[in-house]
Amino acid sequence: MGSMRGLLPHGFCALPLATATHRKHPLVRLQFSIELDYEIEPPGCDFIFSIHAAQTRHQTVVGESLSISQNLPPNLYTDPVTHTRFLRLKAFSGPLRVRYQATVDIDHYTAQPKQLGEVAVANLPGPVLPYIYPSRYCQSDRLHRLAVKEFGHLWQGYSRVQAIRDWVLNRVTFRSNSSTGNTSAVDTLVEEVGVCRDFAHLMIALCRAVNIPARFATGIDFGADPVLGPTDFHAYVEVYLGDRWYMFDPSGVAIPMGFVRFGTGRDAADSAFATMFGGVVGAAPVINIQAIPNGQGVLVLPQHVPYALSTDGQFEQ
Asked: How far, CA to CA in Å, does 287 sit from each of 102, 159, 255, 290?
């Protein structure tokens, strides 16, 4: 995960939630494929994959297919809260190839940043509460004093989250293969270098340190700078504001409108694209993604926008 480019929006006031507005625009349709190759040592290996596009209120899987080189029954499980879809396999020793491809429609929920305020901890929906606590890679308790000093005086809304995102982007330098699976938010703060998962962990820890729920999100993206290399898995951040989760990219290497969400969790420990239980050697993933005309025949290319984006549904209290 340390080598992934890929895995792993400034001064607004917060207004009441009822004033938030949602603008409608043509949906984005993305088509992608993922190929994973492994050589498994005897006696075999159990896998948990998170490579399926999530089905959410604003992200719809139009079509998908899965092929497995070994004769194995796919065991799929969908988390009812996060919509993460897990593929579980018990593979034999020898070569294993897993290929997943899908076409996804993303009908982003959009809102004006000035109209998105933070939610008091006492008023957070129950499923959001786990994302205000420290976690393995996001030691928000250790960063509390720093976060209060840097962001405690700011207006409590989208603009404060944006300030945290910008602070991380300006403090940390993106560099491939600069971290490992053990690198935490505190490590990234000290080293000031990392890949997208490290940027995400640091932003999440700083948000939680000032009582803003934040979670780790994984997937792939369309529109990243090609100088970064081939398309890879991508990690970004979702922050709970108003009544839903909104997307932020602290690494600055991708375009949030081009994110296809796979999984979410407290940090990378919950959201790895592949977790192995056994001896295995893996090759670099081969990922391709393109934007194609949507159901109305309109080609919408992801771009940076000045409003807040979400692919999540509204929380019903």
From this structure: 12, 34, 17, 10
Task: For residue range 170-213, list pLDDT tens digits in order.
Answer: 999 999 889 998 999 999 999 999 999 999 999 999 999 999 99
Q: Are 103 and 64 in contact (CB under 8 A)?
A: yes
241 and 161 Cβ atoms separated by less than 8 Å: yes
Q: Tokens 């970064």 identify what position?
A: 228
Residue 51: exposed, middle, or buried by beta-carbon count in 10 A (0-12, 13-18, 19+)? Answer: buried
Query: Of 14-23, 173-182, 212-221, where does mean pLDDT reach its minimum?
Result: 14-23
> Which amino acid is present at 156?
Q
Long-range contacts of 24-27 (CB under 8 A, 24+ apart): 25/108, 25/110, 25/300, 26/294, 26/296, 26/298, 26/300, 27/105, 27/106, 27/107, 27/108, 27/294, 27/295, 27/300
Helices 196-209 and 158-171, axial angle in degrees (round to 10)? 140
Q: Which domains does the chain have, with CATH numbers?
A: 17-294 (3.10.620.30)
